[in-house]
Amino acid sequence: MPGSEGFNTVGAAPEAPAPNLVPNVALQQLSGSAMPRRNTALESLRQLCALVSPFSTRDQLLADWPSDPPWQALLAQADTHRLLPALSVALARHGLEDRVDADVADILAAVADWNTERNEGFRRQMRVLSAAFNAAGLEPVWLKGALTLLPAHGPADGRLMMDLDVWFAGESRQRAAMAVLRGLGYASESEVAGPRHYPPFFHPGEMARVELHCTIVGPHEALLPVDVAAAGVESLDWDGLRIARLDPLSRVLCSLAQCTSPDSERLATAEVPLMKALDFATRIHDDFGGVVPPALIARVRETGWERSTQRLLTLTESFFGLPNPLASDPALVRMLERITSWPRWHHSLKAFRSLFGAGGRMVLANPRRAPAMVSHYVARLIAPGAPKER
Questions:
Q1: Which InterPro entries does the UniProt record give (predicted)?
Q2: Domain ranges in the chain?
C-alpha cells in the first residue's frame, strides 16, 4: 500500500502492488479487440494527463477532443498510472460526462464509488490514530496523500490512497508514537529505522498500513533538513483533533522527493506511476498559484538536485502543463515515451545496461544471482506490466 512513493523513491521499503482497478477483459470489451497499438498508448497517456491536470480548462479539453477517443487505451493508462479515480473526478469537474461512452462511464462510476468508500475508511483510521496520539500528548504531522483526506470532501477527490504517512520530530516522540500504535494493535517487523521511515505498521482490522517517518526526505537530508521541516510545521484543529502538516515549501519539497532524486537511475525513473508527478504539479498549482516557487529552485541548486528537478519539470510541463522555469531536459520524457510505446524494448535496453554496469558486477561477485536476474528479465519481457515503485 503508497508508503514511499514516487518516480524513484531512494531507500524506501518496497510496497504492495496497487490494485488493478480495471480487469483486462473489461478493457478489451470496450473496443472488441486486443490491446491497442503502441502509438495509441502514448496518445492516450497524453490525453489522460491533460484531463487530470489542474492546469487544464474545459475549453482547452474540448478544442483538443478526438473524434473517436481510444477509451480502451486511455483506461489502461489510467489504471497503470493509478489515475482512474482522478480521471472520473476530472471528467465531472469539467462537465464532460456526456462525452464518455456508456461502458466507460459505468466503469468509472464503479471505480469512483469504490475509491471514495475506501478513502472514507482511511480517513476514519486517521482520526482514530490522531485521537490516540493526542491522548499520549503527541501532535501527528500527516504527510503526502494523507493531507488530501483532511477536508470532509477529501475522500471523493480522486486520490488513490495506499497507506498513511505520519511524522514526529525527534526520536523520543517517534518511540512514543510506536507505543501508541502497538497499543492500538498495530505490529511491525522491527523498530529499526530505515533511511526514511520505520518498517510499516499493519493492523489486521484496518485497510491502510502506517508508515512512521523518522525523516521527511531521507537519505537526502540536505534537501529538507529535519530541523527546518520541524520549524515550519503548521498546527491545525481537525474537528477537535490536534494535528499538523508541513509548511508549503516543505510540502512541495517532500513531493519532489517522491518523484526523483539526484542519484536515481535514469532508466528506472520512467517506470513508476505518474500519480506522484500529478501530486507534485497539483501541489504547486494549489499552494503557489501554478508557479514553481523561487525558493524551490534555490534549494535544488544548493543541494545538487537541479538536474533531476530539470527533468521532472520538463516532464510535468510536457504532460500536465506546469510551466518550467528551468532549462528543458527531455531525458525523462523520452524514457516515459519509450516505456509507454515500446515496453519490451525499454526493458531489453535496461537489462543490457545493467549487465555492463552494476548488474554485471553483482553477477561476477556472486554468480548464483544470475538465474534470478535472468528470470526477472524474462518475466518483464513476457508481461512488461505497470510502472513500479522503487
A1: NTP_transf_5
A2: 24-338, 342-382
